[in-house]
Amino acid sequence: MHQNLDCQVYFNSHEQAPPPVPCGEPIDVAADPAAAHQLIKLGISPRHDLPAVLLREPGGKIRVAGLRLSSEEAGRLAAGAGFPTSRRRVYSSAWCPDCRRAKRVLEEAAARYEEVDIDRDPRAEATVLERSGGRRVVPTLLFDDRLWAFNPDPPLLRRLLGGPGES
Question: How far is Cα 120 from Cα 47, in angstroms, rounded to an integer?
Answer without folding.
Answer: 32
